Amino acid sequence: MNTNPSNHYLLFNFNQLNYAVPASAVQEIFFLPEISPIPEAPEDILGTVNVRGDLIPIMDLNRRFGYPPADYHLTDSIVVLNWQELRLGLLTHQVKEVARLDVEQIAPELPYDHPFSDLKQDRFLDGFIQTEESLTLLLNLDKLLRYVEESELSLDLDLDAFAFSEEDAPTEELTPEFPEEQSLTPAPKFPVFFPQASEYERKVLKNRAKNLQEKLKLRDYAGLKPISVIALQQEFFGVELSSIQEFIQFDKLTPIPCTPNFVLGNINLRGEVITLMDIRGLFNLPQPALKREGKAIIVRWDEIVVGFLADAIHDILMLDPKNLLDAQTIDTELNKNFLQGVAPYQEKMLAVLDLPAILQSGDLWVDEAV
Fold it and tell me: Which of 81, 211, 221, 338 has the smallest CB count inside 10 Å?
C-alpha cells in the first residue's frame, strides 16, 4: 500500500463544493475572525487577517471560480497554507478530514457533460476525484499562491490600522448562545467584511481577530511538528500528522476473542485487515457501547498499521516539542506510559500519543491462554 505522505490531503467543504490541499502545506486552522478589506484587491480576496503580526490574505474560493458569493457563518474556518514561503488563508465552511488520496484516481479533466465541466480548464486546479458520493477539486497551490503574489496586494501597511482596540473588543464574556432576536449592524460607508453580521456576530469576529494578534508570534517553523487533534467525545488526543494514513468510516466490525476491552475488533479496508482500537481504554477513560458503524483514523508506525476510533479530526496545529509538558509531572488519571506529553488546548489538555509505546505494548497481544 502506498503511504507516501505526499498523498495525504486535507479535505474541506465550501458552499457545497469539496476541495483538497496537500496536508503538508497546512500551517494552521482557526475559526473565522474579522477580516480587514484591502483597497483595489481582486474580488476573490476578501482582505487580510493579522496573525501574530503577519498580514495573511484571505481568499473566497467561491468567487475565485466565478460563483455567486456565499453566506458566511461564525462556524466557518480559515485554513492557512504555507507554500514555498508564500502564505494564504482559504475560507471554508467545514474542515472534514485528512485522507490519503490515490493519485491513480485523479483525473486531469471532467467529461464535457459533467455539471462542473466549466472548471476543467481552470489553471488553479490540479485535477478531480469523482466518487459515487461527491466530486473533490484538487487545488494547485503553486499557481494559487503565485496568483496572489502577482496581484501585488498592498500588504506593506501599518499594522496598527488593523489592530482592534479595547473599545472594539467585547467588554464582557461572550456566551455561545445567540439572542432570539438579532439586529443587523448598519452597513458602514466604507467596505466591510460580512456586512450582514449581527451585532453579536461582529463582536465575536472582532474578539477572534484580537486573540489572533495577541498570540505568541512564531516566525521560525523549523522543528515544529504538525499534529492532528483527534476528537473523541469530550476528549482531545494528538497524533503526529506524518503517522496518519487516512480517516475512514466503517460499517462492519469483526470481534477478536481473548483481547483487551480496548481492542474492538477487525475491519476490512480495501482487502487489508486492520485492527481497531478505542484508545480511551488505554487511558482508563469510560468506553461507551460501540455502534456497528463509526469513524476511525488509520495510523502507521514502522510496519504496524492499526485504526483508532475517532469522531473527527478536530484540528491541525504546529506544536513545538519544547512546549510539551512531561506527562509524569501532571496530576492526571491518564496512563502516562502511552503519552509523549500534554499541552494546553482550548481550555483543556491535549494528550499527545506515543505511538511506538502503544503499538509495542504487550497489552495488545492476544492472550491465547484465556
Answer: 221
Residues in a beta bridge with 225:
319
Q: Of 176, 133, 158, which is closest to residue 55 (Cα–Cα)?
A: 158
Q: Cα(262)–Cα(280) distance, rounded to whole angstroms?
A: 7
Which three cell numbers, joined as nine digits, stand for 207?
A: 474578539
CB within 8 A of 172, min separation 6: which ones?
none
Of 1, 18, 15, 2, nearest in space to 97 by CA: 18
* Contact assessment for residue 290 and residue 278, using Cβ atoms and an 8 Å cutoff: yes
Residue 42 near residue 151, CB atoms below 8 Å = yes
CA angle 113, 119, 121 (to 5 degrees): 100
Q: What is the pLDDT of residues 135-189, one digit of tens each?
A: 888 898 888 888 887 776 655 444 444 444 444 444 443 443 333 433 333 333 3
If phi > 0 it is left, if psi is from -120 to 50 it is alpha, else beta; for residue 245 that is alpha
Spell out the domains of the chain, with CATH numbers in brackets.
Answer: 5-214 (2.40.50.180), 225-364 (2.40.50.180)
Give the span between the Cα atoms of 22 and 149, in whole angstroms. 20
AA letter at 87: R
Measured from the Cβ of residue 5, the count of other Cβ atoms closer than 10 Å reads: 14
C-beta neighbour count of 26 within 10 angstroms = 24
pTM of the full structure:
0.53
pLDDT, tens only, 301-349: 888 888 988 877 777 778 888 888 887 666 665 667 788 888 888 777 8
Largest CA distance in the chain: 78
